[in-house]
Every structure is written in C-alpha cells, then in structure tokens.
Design goal:
Blueprint: H1 15-19, E1 25-35, E2 60-73, E3 84-88, E4 91-93, E5 104-119, E6 123-128, E7 134-140, E8 145-146, E9 157-158, E10 164-165, E11 170-174, E12 187-192, E13 198-205, E14 212-219, E15 225-234, E16 244-248, E17 256-259, E18 266-268, E19 275-277, E20 284-285, E21 288-289, E22 308-309, E23 316-321, E24 326-331
Parallel strand pairs: 1-15, 1-24
Antiparallel strand pairs: 2-5, 3-4, 5-6, 6-7, 7-8, 9-10, 11-16, 12-13, 13-14, 14-15, 17-23, 18-19, 18-22, 20-21, 23-24
Length: 340
C-alpha cells in the first residue's frame, strides 16, 4: 500500500514500520476470556446491498451466494467413534460426539455457499459460515493484494481433528487446534453499529465440552484494518483446558519475509523441544542444517517445518512481500495472546 500513512493512526510512523518500506495492512485482535459466562444476544444489522459511494467511508455488509469447485467428502460412518488412536501434530482425536469426516474423495463438484461480504473503501472480506466460519478472502483494494491466501477451490485434506480440513484465509482454531468443526457450518449473524462500522459474528457451542466461542470481524469507516474480537465462554461448572490460535495463510514466494519483533531472537518447535537462533540460524533444527541461513525468508527452507516466536515482548508480528511491496501486520496484546 502506498501513500496511506494517514490511515494508520500513527502506526506507520513507528521505527519498525519505517524500516520495512511501504505500510502493511493491519489486522488487530481483541481477546476476551469469560469463564462461567453467558453469551449476549447480537442483533443482526440491516443488509447493505445497494450501490455505495465510498466517499465518506461507508461500510457494506451483505450475504450473497458464492459458487466454488469443491471436492466431495462422503457421509461419515453412522456408528459413533469415541476415540481414534491417531496423533495429529501432537494432539489426539477424542472426537465423540462428532462423526469423523475422513472420507475425502477426488470427485470434483460445483457447490454454492452462503458468503458474507464485508467491505469498505480499503478492504474487502469474504466469510464462509458453512466452512467453519473461515475468513475465506481478504483483499487490499488499494493495490488488489490478497494479504491472506485466496483459495480457488475447496479441496479437503486429512489434517483436521475429524479429518477434513482446507487451507487458505484464516481458520479459527478454538479450544483445540484444527478444531473438530473446522469443516462444518457454524452460527453467524450480522451487526451494524452507530459509528458506521459493521461486524460479522461467527461462533458455536462446541459439543465435546459444551463451551462456546464467538468471533467478530469488524470494518470501520475510513480505516484499512480488520478488527477481530474473540470471546471464549466456559458454560460449564468444570474447568477445561483450552487452546486458541488463528491459523493464517499467506501467498508465499521467493520475496516473502516473516517479520518477528526485535525481542524474538530464538524460535522453537511445536513441543518446545527444539530451539534455534532467529532470524539467522545457527546449527541444526528438525534435522536441517540452518547454519548462517536467514530463517525469515520463505525461500530459504528446503522443506516444511514450524518456527514459533520465543519470549515475544511486543504486540505485533507480520509478513512482507518485497516483490509486491505489500504485506500484513497482526497486532494484539501479547499478555493475552502470547503468540502474537
């Protein structure tokens, strides 16, 4: 994005931002943890489908069918599966009362989904409630840059807790990573606010532990950022362990750089059983010799692996495509969401 410093409320003037050239698109998170809480009813806002002049910073929010090529997942076994002795990325598949979604096929069909569109003069978003409430597309309208990965097909792979999982956009991993309903419909509603901002809410009551989550995506008039509000509710009298993270996909290429803040000088693996200096590697990590390698550049990795920021002390992280002079920044309170 160019010539957009006025839309950043001073953020683009920070030393870190100016170091990386043109401003990045901002994604900000507000997290709320509520134990023994009750969920507030959200009034649906009026759908805004008429022609809009973007002068004055109007925000549109509407539903519209979206047709996508989709690989079929056959119906699950009718018999309940209480537990499958499989480990996926360190987690176990204690799936009951959900059925497994492991019958993926190579049969390509055309399927129409209900898409919720949220748009202002700078940003255009698409949310698919039928696919776990996933933020499916996110585009910077000033340069037509998809700052999250824009998927062109729904092609499930066996990565989720129940099996079926798709890539692209943002997956909301609530209570359990690659959660059980990541490929299932969730509740949603639309809300209009007095200040002209508008929100699409997605969420559900999770049936394994009877906890509830809602996530609101808000666009404000005249602003180039997305505000995500995350609320987690323990509706039961028991304590439950939880995990929350937003699984964000971007368009990786030889020019893409992952940006961790200056405090991050070490990266670690999923189970925190391996560590490596960041951003310039020293030694071996996951069986790969990274001595002297710039780990922040996607093109320097010979095979897929994971790097997590260790002892992060700032409230941001991001990614930047040097070839397209565009990128994205995530901002959130690292005391609440330590992985920010």
């Amino acid at each position: 994005m160019k010539n957009t410093v006025n839309k950043w409320d001073g953020f683009a003037n920070s030393g870190w931002m100016s170091q990386w050239g043109p401003p990045l698109l901002l994604l900000t998170f507000v997290a709320t943890l509520s134990w023994f809480g009750t969920i507030a009813q959200v009034e649906a806002g009026a759908l805004d489908q008429e022609e809009v002049s973007w002068e004055g910073g109007a925000v549109r929010l509407w539903e519209e069918p979206l047709t996508l090529p989709t690989y079929r997942v056959d119906p699950p076994d009718h018999n309940p599966m209480f537990f499958r002795n499989e480990v996926y990325q360190g987690a176990k598949k204690k799936v009951y009362p959900y059925p497994l979604q492991d019958k993926v096929t190579r049969i390509l069909e055309t399927k129409t989904y209900t898409a919720v569109h949220l748009e202002n003069e700078y940003v255009a978003l698409t949310v698919l409630p039928e696919l776990g409430g996933r933020l499916f597309t996110a585009t910077d309208k000033t340069n037509n840059y998809d700052f999250f990965y824009r998927q062109s097909v729904v092609k499930p792979a066996l990565i989720g807790m129940l099996g079926a999982w798709i890539s692209g956009g943002i997956e909301w991993c609530v209570f359990h990573h690659h959660r059980n309903t990541t490929f299932m419909p969730v509740d949603y509603t639309l809300e209009a606010h007095a200040d002209g901002s508008k929100t699409v809410w997605v969420g559900e009551t999770e049936r394994r532990h009877r906890m509830r989550w809602i996530i609101g995506l808000t666009l404000h008039p005249g602003r180039s950022y997305i505000e995500a509000t995350v609320k987690l509710f323990n509706r039961t009298a028991q304590a439950h362990s939880i995990l929350y993270w937003a699984n964000v996909a971007v368009h990786a290429n030889d020019d893409y750089e992952v940006l961790f803040p200056p405090s991050v000088q070490v990266a670690t693996y999923h189970s925190k059983n391996q560590f490596i200096h960041w951003p310039i590697g020293q030694g071996t990590y996951q069986g790969i010799d990274y001595e002297g390698v710039d780990l922040s550049r996607w093109s320097n990795h010979p095979e897929p692996t994971s790097f997590f920021a260790w002892n992060l002390a700032e409230d941001f992280s991001g990614g930047y495509d040097h070839g397209k002079a565009a990128g994205v920044v995530h901002v959130g309170n690292h005391h609440i969401m330590a992985g920010t």
